Amino acid sequence: MTTERYEFFAAVQGYLDNAARVIDLPPHVGLILSQPKNELICHFPVRMDNGEVRLFKGYRIQHNNLLGPYKGGIRYHETVSLDDLKALASMMTWKCALMNIPFGGAKGGIKFNPRAHSKTELMRVTRRFTHALGSNIGPEYDIPAPDVGTNGQIMVWMMDTYMNTVGHFDKNAQRRVVTGKTLSSGGSAGREKATGQGLVHCIVEWAEDHHFNLEGATCVLQGVGNVGSHAAMLLAKLGVSILAIGDHTGYRFNPDGFNPHRLSDHVRTRGSIEGYPTGQPITREEFFATKADIFIPAALENQVGEAEAKALNVKLVAEGANGPVNPFGEKILQDRGIEILPDVLANSGGVTVSYYEWTQNKRSESWELEEVDEKLERAMKSTFKRVLSFAREKDIDMRTAAYALALERLREVYAERDIFP
Ligand code: NAD
Predict the structure, then answer these.
(1) Does residue 58 line the site of ligand 1, with CB under 6 A?
(2) Same domain, 120 and 268
(3) How, if at all, do strands 142-146 and 70-77 pair?
(4) Closest by alpha carbon to 191, among 351, 69, 308?
(5) H helix count then E strand count, the chain
(6) Catalytic option among 71, 95, 107, 193
(7) Of the chain's two ends, which shows fewer C-beta atoms within 10 Å, N or C?
(8) Which protein residue has the closest C-alpha to ligand 1 atom 31?
(9) pLDDT (tens digit per residue) in 350-389
(10) How far apart are CA 293 and CA 214, in angstroms?
């Protein structure tokens, strides 16, 4: 984490204000969007494997549902806080509006370290949390998905608990209460890699626009989880090599490039990059100063502040994570001419394929991987082009452009529906 005093929700609010000015957003719409609709905080007890009872704090923040049901990930991490989740929930609203997906925005999570728990404890924590959320989630109301510290298995436990506790006549129709499920329990082909895949589509578009050859290009990657590992494997197919990697356990450098498949297998079995056999350990400072073409932050928010932005030695920052560059860092990157592919565009492949999963569940269908891949590619590339051309037309950065396009869509619907009563 950077050391600057940083409030994530206030930073996102700042981006919203910038974009609102670009499109002359009516003040009352900006006011409505300035706070989440609902903020749910619950405490629930869970029995640990050793018999001890622990109390957990869970959150679900529902930012906006103008365009459709609330939608957004569930995070298990020791730093989960109300402020961060408010920021992340609002970003889901912008993402879905930008991608033209009929969902609103939400985010939730539990403040704890999932790595410190056994599989059975994780299952009980997940089930009690889902029970505590009760009817505050639902297939047409609020649809969780995986985020940091959660995965397809956690989603399946959430789905199963919801089906068994909220009395429904047609239990199978409730499967779409969560997305990002495993394939066998109703997930979609292509969902696991979707965020990394969407990010890579954006990088390819950026490279084409800049006449930049990705074959032989280099990359620095922070976070080797769902987003980071898939992005690395897909970039390798395009000839991009990963020179430096990092996660919560440390940082490593390999001038010959890391093998992303072996790396991802190592992380899957060991839980982190710790003990990875190739390359050598480096400091966080050395990691950020590594010379490469692209930096992909795919871990947490607030990783690039002033110091990191001054150190980065790349052409492009492609935001796989949400909010990885703070406003102080962003200003420096802009001054240095380092381009940023903003999170609400660059990592929106995940929620896009989540929408495909939800649609398949609703229609009792199962689409082929090729179909999902084609749809995602079309959606990412056309949205990238829309954001880039709007940014150029208005002479603004891509983040402001992405927010402005999202706000335009919300503005239109608010103009038609107006305020109840
Ligand atoms: P994950 O849990 O699979 O991986 C998280 C990675 O971050 C791990 O490699 C972990 O070691 C690393 N990490 C955690 N704390 C760190 C620290 N203090 N310093 C350095 N590294 C640290 O999570 P994910 O699903 O890959 O999510 C990563 C980012 O992408 C998050 O910002 C998330 O909100 C965003 N995102 C995820 C999805 C998705 O579909 N999973 C979609 C959109 C955005």
Answers:
(1) no
(2) no
(3) parallel
(4) 351
(5) 15, 12
(6) 107
(7) C
(8) 321
(9) 999 999 999 999 999 999 999 999 999 999 999 999 999 9
(10) 9
CA 149 to centroid of ligand 1, rounded, Å: 7
**Domain assignment of residue 380, yes or no:** no
Q: 246-280: buried (b, 16+ CB within 10 Å) or exposed (e) per residue?
A: bbbebbbbbeebbbbeebbebbeeeeebeebeebe
Does one domain contain both 23 and 39?
no
Residue 39, token pair as written in the block:
């903020």
- The pLDDT score that the predictor gives to residue 173 is 84
Distance 6 CA to ligand 1 centre (A): 19
54 φ/ψ angles, rounded to the nearest 5 degrees: -120, 150
Protein residue closest via CA to atom 14 of ligand 1: 248
- Determine contact, residues 82/59, Cβ cutoff 8 Å: yes
Quote the CA–CA distance of 227 and 267 in Å, as a whole number.
13
Q: For all residues of the chain together, what is the average pLDDT?
A: 97
Q: How far apart are CA 256 and CA 265, in angstroms?
A: 19
Q: What is the pLDDT of residue 6?
A: 81
| pLDDT of residue 157 exceeding 80 | yes
Q: Which helix (H) or strand (E) holds 136?
A: none
Q: Which one of 150, 178, 206 terminates a domain?
A: 178
190 lines ligand 1 (CB under 6 A): no
> Do 198 and 216 reside in the same domain of the chain?
yes
CA distance 250 to 273: 8
Is 146 a pocket residue for ligand 1 (Cβ < 6 Å)?
Answer: yes
Residue 139 has pLDDT above 70, yes or no: yes
Do 199 and 337 belong together in one domain? yes
Ligand 1: centre distance to CA 281 (Å):
21
SS3 label, residue 244? strand
Mutate to test the pocket of ligand 1, among 1, 61, 147 (most ligand atoms within 8 A of CB): 147
Q: Is the pTM of this model over 0.90?
A: yes
* Residues facing residue 250 across a β-bridge: 247
Which of 77, 78, 155, 247 is the pocket-test mutation for ligand 1 (most atoms within 8 Å of CB)? 247
Same-domain check for residues 61 and 171: yes
Q: Do 95 and 348 form a contact (C-beta atoms < 8 A)?
A: yes
Same domain, 55 and 77: yes
Sheet holding 241-247, edge to edge: 280-282, 250-258, 241-247, 218-222, 294-297, 316-318, 339-341
Q: Which amino acid is at 55?
A: L
Asked if residue 321 has its Cβ within 6 Å of ligand 1, the reply is yes
- Whether 107 is catalytic is yes
